[in-house]
Design brief:
The complex is a heterodimer of chains A (132) and B (395). Chain A is mainly β. Chain A contains two helices and eight strands. Chain A has two domains: 48 residues; 83 residues, OB fold (Dihydrolipoamide Acetyltransferase, E2P), CATH 2.40.50. By secondary structure, chain B is α/β, with parallel strands linked by helices. A nine-stranded mixed beta sheet of chain B has the order 3-2-4-7-1-8-11-10-9, with helices on both faces. In chain B, strands 5-6 form a two-stranded antiparallel ribbon. The longest helix of chain B has 15 residues. The mean pLDDT of chain B is 96. Classes of the chains: A mainly beta (132), B alpha/beta (395). At the A-B interface, β4, β5 and β6 of A face α5, α6 and β5 of B.
Chain lengths: 132, 395
């Protein structure tokens, strides 16, 4: 299902590639082609570092279809060090409690599966920062 | 303040109202549910054929495998051939459909419009319903991470408590007030009331958001027959109510794209536009049917409208200001929280309930001497906001 849709997003999902505005240098993720800051065309690719911090978080108990095997899981808003915010799951937390402001870094993990014969979709999740 | 009593021909007035009970209607299909509300709204006015029919719905494509609700429902209601379509803006669908009716009537292209909000939730079960609801988020960048509107409300709630000095049960009053008001609403899903201790002991569904912070999603339909004043038939059985302002605003679909997510900018600007159009001030409003699908959204809606400063919306729920006799009553028939949340139909229920208040036909739920009421419904966690202000017509 929706194979081309997920294939199209590989750069963003696997490598956190966004955009930078050539006019005002605003860093953009997810990419949106028009700078939300100055309104100019912004299609220059930009590689994000993958480092950021937790802005808010919650634990999902009742998962939508395709996410049942992970429930309960923690979703968070992550503020990237370059400025933009994104939505992602936290992973590799072990027994560590989550807190607002906690430093995290991007890793690639399985996001969801569509049954035994369906696609496996991979993408970014965030774990507690290891490298300082 | 403008005198709203000197009407003109292009005034937009509500001449018929219908609401079904909200609940699990296992034996009723989406078309039958809509028909029940339509019959009530057109009661005694069956000879009046609307020029357009707008159906507000969010979940039928996902849960009932059905598009073209306009044609389906119009035909089923004996109104085959009338211009009709579905209006979708997630939880703001109802208000958005009323907005379209308002514009069609103001333009003069239509003299009478039927607006129907209908949601049939129980045709889906379990994770399918959560997936359907998650379609109101950004599919590529939010839903793919397993997020749902409930968890988005929880993200907002956690941040709200982090930024503001509020006690753990700060939002309990929204739930308690809604449940209190629903006791005397025959259309409400939950009519038994609730105690503060129940809030404190409620299980978390997406921490820090507990079971009483979220509205139950259920089946229901509401309908409004709306006309231009110069096309109103004689012999109406109930007083008319005027829609004196209509507005719709939007902001980013994705929550993470908002520079300041605790400031609900679409909600704020739609209220500002509505106040400007009606030439009223907040103090003139006698009640506010806001979007209380999650208690945090009720607090943020009060702040966005200007009833409370930033970070203080919860205080209105603690000191009784939002109760039936308070300074700004909300959820006067139980709101989404206790009447039950009907997704895309919610905005039509809100306006139908305000109409009853302004007609003086709200029974035990009557807000004393209600002259002006404001309704606001929102899509997702604030991406779209539709706001209407209604005025009583003095006899």
């Amino acid at each position: 299902m929706e194979i081309s849709r997920h294939w199209r997003l590989a750069k963003q999902r696997y490598a956190l590639v966004g955009e930078v505005c050539p006019n005002c240098e605003h860093k953009i993720f997810p990419p949106r082609d028009i700078c939300p800051d100055c309104g100019e065309e912004a299609q220059d690719l930009y590689q994000f570092s993958g480092r950021g911090e937790v802005y808010s978080y919650t634990q999902v108990q009742q998962a939508p279809t395709g996410f049942e095997e992970y429930a309960p899981y923690t979703v968070a808003l992550i503020k990237l060090e370059e400025g933009p915010m994104l939505t992602a799951q936290l992973t590799d937390m072990g027994k560590r409690p989550v807190s607002i402001g906690m430093p995290v870094e991007m890793v690639t993990r399985k996001l969801r599966s569509d049954g035994e014969r369906g696609m496996l979709i991979y993408g970014y999740k965030f774990r507690p920062a290891i490298a300082s | 303040m403008t005198n709203h009593q000197h009407g003109s021909g292009d005034d937009v007035v509500i001449i018929g109202v219908g609401m079904t009970p909200v609940g699990e209607h296992w034996d009723t299909s989406i078309r039958e549910l809509a028909l029940q509300a339509i019959k009530m709204a057109r009661g005694g006015l069956a000879a009046l054929i609307p020029d357009a029919i707008y159906v507000a719905n969010m979940l039928a494509p996902a849960l009932s495998s059905q598009t073209q609700l306009g044609a389906l429902i119009s035909d089923f209601a004996g109104l085959r051939g009338v211009e009709t379509l579905t209006i979708e803006a997630a939880g703001a669908s109802g208000g958005s459909a009323i907005r379209q009716a308002f514009m069609a009537l103001k333009s003069g292209l239509a003299k009478c419009v039927l607006v129907i909000g209908v949601e049939k939730v129980t045709d889906g079960v379990g994770t399918d319903v959560d997936s359907a609801l998650a379609t109101s988020t950004d599919a590529d960048y939010e839903a793919i991470h397993g997020i749902t509107p409930t968890s988005q409300a929880a993200l907002l709630m956690r941040r709200y408590f982090y930024e503001n000095d509020a006690p753990k049960d700060a939002l309990a009053g929204f739930s308690i007030t809604a449940h209190q008001n629903a006791i005397t609403n025959p259309n409400a899903m939950f009519r038994q009331g609730m105690q503060p201790v129940q809030y404190l002991n409620a299980p978390m569904i997406s921490a820090p958001l507990n079971m009483f912070d979220a509205a139950p999603l259920a089946d229901g339909s509401a309908a409004l027959l709306i006309a231009r004043a110069d096309a109103v038939p004689s012999g109406l059985s109930a007083p008319m109510v005027r829609i004196i302002a209509s507005s719709l605003a939007s902001t980013t679909l994705a929550l993470h794209d908002r520079p300041d997510m605790l400031h609900m900018s679409a909600l704020e600007s739609s209220v500002q536009q509505a106040l400007e159009m009606s030439d009223l001030r907040l103090e003139d409003l006698d009640l506010f049917e806001l979007h209380d699908q999650y208690s945090i959204l009720a607090a943020l809606a009060l702040e966005a409208a200007g009833f409370a400063p930033r970070g203080k919306g919860w205080e209105l729920a603690r000191n009784g200001e939002i109760s039936q006799s308070g300074s700004i009553p909300i959820s006067t028939f139980g709101g989404s929280k206790a009447r039950g949340d009907t997704g895309g139909a919610t905005g039509v229920y809100q306006v139908a309930e305000i109409t009853r208040q302004l007609q003086g036909l709200a029974g035990e739920n009557q807000v004393a001497d209600a002259r002006y009421g404001m309704a606001q419904c929102i899509g997702g966690v604030g991406s779209t906001a539709a706001t209407h202000i209604l005025a009583r017509i003095e006899p």
